[in-house]
Design brief:
GO molecular function: transmembrane transporter activity
Number of strands: 4
Strand order of the largest sheet: 2-3-1-4
Pfam families: MFS_3 (PF05977)
Protein name: MFS family permease
CATH architecture of the largest domain: Up-down Bundle
Order of helices and strands: HHHHHHHHHHHHHHHEHEEHHE
Subcellular location: Cell membrane
Membrane topology: Multi-pass membrane protein
Helix content: 55-70%
CATH class of the largest domain: Mainly Alpha
Structural class: mainly alpha
Radius of gyration: 28 Å
CATH superfamily of the largest domain: MFS general substrate transporter like domains
Length: about 575
C-alpha cells in the first residue's frame, strides 16, 4: 500500500488536559523513600505526643506549681533556642543522614533512661525537667537536618505539599497521641507507672526512623568541591545571610510575634484542664488531641486554601482565631464549647506554621538552607519558651484567666504591626545555583586557602546618562556580596575620569571568596547582568585580586602562615 502524502490531522484537544492540574496535596507520598520516612516519623511523633502528655501530667502529680508545669514547655523549647544555629550549621556541613541517625539514637537513649528512672520511682520535678531537656537537645539538633532533606526526597515543585504532609503527620500524631498518652496514664492506679510505660513506648518509636535512615543510600543534591566550612565559620555565614535577607527576617519576626502569645495555649492547657475543668489525664489528652485533629485537617486542606487565600490572610485569620481561643479558655468552663474551638485553633495553627516553614525553605538557596531552618526553629522555640515563662508567672502570681486574656490581647494588638512584614508575597527570587565556567581565577601566584584578607576590585565604565541607574543596580549587588560572605563593600568613582567606577569588596580569606563564587544563584546572575549591561568599555569589566601583604619567611613562595 503506498504511503499517504497527506499530513495526519491534528489530534482532537483533550478536554481533561485543558483543565488546570491542581495539586491534591498527596503527590510526595508516591515517592517510596518519602513515604517510608513519613510513616516512620508519624509513628515516632505519636510516641512523642504520648510522652508530652504523660510527662506534663506527671509534673502536675509531682508538683502543684503552675510555673514548674509551664517550664515543661520551656524545657522542650529552650534547647532549640540555644542550639538552633549550631544544628543548622552541622546539617549544612556534615552528612545529614549520619547526623539524623546519631540524634535519633540520642533521643531513644534519653527517653529510655527516663522510663527506667520512672519505673524505679527515682523521679522528681527537676529530674523530669532535666531529662525532658536532654531529649529535646536531640530534637533540636535533629530538626534542621530533617527538614533540609525534603528537597532530596521530592521534586522542588512538590515541596509545599511535602511540608504540608509532614505537618499533617506531625499533627495526626498530635491528634491521637495526647489521648493515648492520657489513657495510658489513667489506665494505671499510679500516674508514674502509666507515665513510665508511655516513656518506654516512645523510646521504641524511634527504631522505625533509624531503620529507614540506615537503609537510605543518600545522594546529596549539591556537594561543594571546596573543603568543608568550620562550625563557627558556618554559623557566622548563616547569621550574615540572615542579616541581608529581608524575606527571611520578615518570616522570623512574624513567627516570633505569633508564637510568644500563642504559647499560652500550650503552656497552660494542662492547668486549665486540671483546675478549671476538673479533668484528669484523659481529659487533658482529649483537649490536646482536639488541637491535633484540627491541625490534621488544616494540613490536608492547606494546598486548596493557598490557592484562594494569600499567606498574609492565612496568618491574620489564624491570629484572630487564636485570640478567640485564648479568651474562651480563660472564661468558659464547658468542654463541649472548648473542644470545637480547639479543633478550629488546630486548623489555624498548622496553617500558620506550615506557611512560615515554607516561607523559610523557599526563601534561601541550598547552601544555607539548614542554617536558615535552624535559625527559624530557634526563633520559633524562643517565642514558645519566653512566652511559657511569662504566662506561667502571670498565672502563678495573678490567675490563669488573666494570663490567657493578656495573651489574647497581645495577639490582637500586634496584628496590625506584624501584617506590614511580607510573607510569601509577590514573586520570589530564583535561588537555584548558577555555575560559571571558570570556578577558580587564573593568577600569577597561587594563594593558600587560608590566605587573606582578600580585596576584589571590579572596574566599570559607565555613560553619564546611565550613572543613576548603574548606582541603583550596583547597590543590589552590595546585598549579594555581603550576604554571601563579604566583610566590607563599596563603590567608588574615579575623580579624574567620572565614567570610571570601581566596585570593591573584602573577603576574610581566599577560600571564602571561592565559596562566595560557588554560592552565586540564578537571581544573583540577573542582578549582575543588569549591572554589566551598563558597562560601556570595549572589554568586559576588569577584575583585580589583591591579597593582604605580609612579610614572607620563605622567599620562594608567598605564605601568611608565619606572618602572625
Amino acid at each position: 500500500m503506498p504511503l499517504s502524502t497527506t499530513p495526519n490531522p491534528p489530534p482532537a484537544p483533550d478536554p481533561e488536559a485543558a483543565k488546570p492540574q491542581y495539586s491534591t496535596g498527596f503527590e510526595p507520598l508516591h515517592a517510596p523513600l518519602f513515604r517510608s520516612l513519613w510513616i516512620a516519623s508519624t509513628v515516632s511523633n505519636l510516641g512523642g505526643w504520648m510522652q508530652d502528655t504523660a510527662g506534663t501530667w506527671l509534673m502536675t502529680v509531682l508538683t502543684t506549681s503552675p510555673l514548674l508545669i509551664a517550664l515543661m514547655q520551656t524545657a522542650a523549647s529552650l534547647p532549640v533556642v540555644i542550639l538552633g544555629l549550631l544544628a543548622g550549621a552541622t546539617a549544612d556541613i556534615f552528612d545529614r543522614r549520619r547526623l539524623l541517625l546519631f540524634w535519633q539514637a540520642w533521643m531513644l537513649a534519653a527517653v529510655a533512661l527516663l522510663s527506667v528512672l520512672t519505673f524505679f520511682n527515682i523521679i522528681s520535678p527537676w529530674v523530669l525537667l532535666t531529662l525532658t531537656f536532654l531529649l529535646n537537645i536531640g530534637a533540636a539538633m535533629n530538626s534542621p537536618a530533617w527538614q533540609a532533606i525534603m528537597p532530596e526526597l521530592v521534586p522542588r515543585e512538590q515541596l509545599p505539599e511535602a511540608v504540608s504532609l509532614n505537618s499533617a503527620g506531625f499533627n495526626l500524631a498530635r491528634a491521637v497521641g495526647p489521648a493515648l498518652g492520657g489513657l495510658a496514664v489513667a489506665a494505671f492506679t499510679h500516674a508514674d507507672t502509666g507515665a513510665a510505660w508511655t516513656f518506654l513506648l516512645n523510646s521504641l518509636s524511634f527504631v522505625g526512623v533509624i531503620l529507614v535512615l540506615y537503609q537510605w543510600k543518600r545522594v546529596p543534591i549539591f556537594k561543594s568541591a571546596l573543603p568543608a566550612e568550620r562550625i563557627f565559620g558556618s554559623i557566622r555565614a548563616g547569621l550574615r545571610y540572615v542579616q541581608y535577607a529581608p524575606l527571611l527576617k520578615a518570616a522570623f519576626a512574624r513567627t516570633f510575634i505569633f508564637t510568644i502569645f500563642v504559647s499560652a495555649v500550650w503552656s497552660l492547657l494542662a492547668v486549665v484542664a486540671a483546675r478549671d475543668l476538673h479533668q484528669g489525664a484523659l481529659g487533658y489528652g482529649i483537649l490536646n488531641g482536639s488541637m491535633g485533629l484540627g491541625a490534621v485537617a488544616g494540613a490536608t486542606l492547606l494546598p486548596r486554601v493557598r490557592r484562594v487565600v494569600s499567606a498574609d490572610k492565612i496568618i491574620a485569620f489564624s491570629t484572630c482565631i487564636f485570640a478567640a481561643t485564648l479568651l474562651i479558655l480563660a472564661f468558659v468552663r464547658y468542654p463541649l464549647v472548648i473542644i470545637p474551638i480547639l479543633l478550629i485553633a488546630g486548623f489555624a495553627w498548622t496553617s500558620t506554621m506550615s506557611t512560615f516553614n515554607l516561607a523559610v525553605q523557599i526563601s534561601v538557596p541550598g547552601w544555607v538552607q539548614a542554617r536558615a531552618l535552624g535559625a527559624y526553629q530557634m526563633v520559633f522555640a524562643g517565642g514558645m519558651a519566653i512566652g511559657s515563662v511569662i504566662w506561667g508567672l502571670i498565672a502563678e502570681h495573678i490567675s490563669t484567666p488573666v494570663s490567657l486574656a493578656v495573651a489574647a490581647g497581645g495577639l490582637l494588638i500586634t496584628l496590625p504591626f506584624s501584617a506590614r512584614l511580607p510573607v510569601l508575597r509577590g514573586e520570589l527570587p530564583d535561588f537555584s545555583p548558577f555555575r560559571t565556567k571558570h570556578q577558580t581565577p587564573q593568577l600569577a601566584i597561587e594563594p593558600e586557602m587560608s590566605q587573606g584578607p582578600v580585596r576584589i576590585l571590579i572596574d566599570y565604565y559607565v555613560d553619564e546618562k546611565d550613572y543613576n541607574n548603574f548606582v541603583h543596580a550596583i547597590h543590589k549587588m552590595k546585598v549579594v556580596r555581603l550576604r554571601d560572605g563579604a566583610m566590607r563593600w563599596g563603590i567608588f568613582q574615579d575623580a579624574s575620569d567620572p565614567r570610571h567606577l570601581t566596585e570593591t569588596f573584602i573577603m576574610e580569606s581566599w577560600i571564602d571568596y571561592l565559596r562566595q563564587r560557588e554560592r552565586f544563584t540564578t537571581s544573583d546572575r540577573t542582578i549582575r547582568d543588569q549591572v554589566v549591561s551598563m558597562h560601556c568599555g570595549e572589554e568586559p569589566p576588569q577584575i583585580t585580586y589583591t591579597i593582604y601583604a605580609r612579610e614572607r619567611t620563605n622567599e620562594t613562595a608567598p605564605s601568611n602562615e608565619d606572618a602572625e
